[in-house]
Structure formats: structure tokens, C-alpha cells
């Protein structure tokens, strides 16, 4: 299994950004995929999870209502659509499935 994170960048507060996790070596339709993030000097924290077979979703309280996790079937990827971004969302975001982690993608929210 190979996981590659992409799509990070710099965005202003209140803006939106989509990051993606491309997964190979796994039948994505049977997977459970999570996003985590780690800000400088802080521990890695869980952000969101999707159970693709039954489409169950769950979010950390800090992002609920602003972030949406979904399967992008056109690219065999799981994406995280982030809206109303805040400076405290600044972190490196990591995707994981089956114990395999992506390399992370940096999201910076700053004016």
C-alpha cells in the first residue's frame, strides 16, 4: 500500500483549500481512511475519518461543519475539503489507511 498526500498551500483566513490522498495497492472501496494533522510543537491530532464501505463519516469537534472528507472516485483518492480556514488550522496534514501514512502536506493559514 502506498499513500501520497498533496494539495497543501498558503491560504488566507476564511479561505478554502482541498487536500488529497492518493492510495494505491489497496481496494479503496473497502478502506477506512483518516486525516490527521500536526502543528509545530504540538502532538499529531485526528481530524476526520471515512469508512468507505458504509460511508460513515466523523470529524473532530474543531473542524466539524468546516471540513468535509469524501472519496474522489475519479482519482482513487480521499480528499479533505476545508472551508472557513483559521490560523489554528495551520499544520502538516497526513492521510493514513491500514497503518500506512502519507508523507504529509503543509497547510498554512495566514494573512
Task: Supply database-style keywords.
single chain, 111 residues, mainly beta, 7-stranded mixed beta sheet, 4-stranded antiparallel beta sheet, 54% strand, globular
Short précis:
The chain has no helices and eleven strands.
Which secondary structure elements does this structure contain, and how are they paired or packed?
Layout: E1 2-6, E2 9-11, E3 17-24, E4 32-38, E5 45-51, E6 56-59, E7 67-72, E8 77-82, E9 91-97, E10 100-101, E11 105-109
Parallel strand pairs: 2-11
Antiparallel strand pairs: 1-3, 3-8, 4-5, 4-9, 5-6, 7-8, 9-10, 9-11
Task: Bin the helical content.
Answer: under 10%
Secondary-structure content class: mainly beta
β-sheet strand percentage: over 45%
Mean pLDDT: 96
Q: Give the end-to-end Cα distance, rounded to a whole number of Å.
A: 37 Å
What count of helical segments does DSSP give? 0
Main beta sheet, described?
7 strands, mixed
Please state the overall shape, judged from the principal axes of the Cα atoms. Answer: globular
Q: Over the alpha carbons, how many angstroms does the gyration radius reach? A: 13 Å
Helix-strand pattern: EEEEEEEEEEE
Question: Uncertain runs with pLDDT below 50, 5 residues or more?
Answer: none
Count every beta strand, where a strand is a DSSP E run of 2 or more residues.
11
Amino acid at each position: 500500500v502506498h499513500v501520497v498526500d498533496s494539495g497543501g498551500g498558503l491560504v488566507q483566513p476564511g479561505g478554502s483549500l482541498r487536500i488529497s490522498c492518493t492510495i494505491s495497492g489497496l481496494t479503496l472501496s473497502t478502506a477506512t481512511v483518516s486525516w490527521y494533522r500536526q502543528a509545530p510543537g504540538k502532538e499529531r491530532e485526528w481530524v476526520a475519518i471515512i469508512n468507505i464501505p458504509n460511508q460513515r463519516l466523523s470529524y473532530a469537534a474543531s473542524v466539524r461543519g468546516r471540513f468535509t472528507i469524501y472519496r474522489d472516485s475519479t482519482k482513487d483518492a480521499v480528499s479533505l475539503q476545508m472551508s472557513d480556514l483559521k490560523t489554528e488550522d495551520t499544520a502538516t496534514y497526513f492521510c493514513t489507511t491500514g497503518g500506512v501514512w502519507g508523507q504529509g502536506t503543509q497547510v498554512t493559514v495566514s494573512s
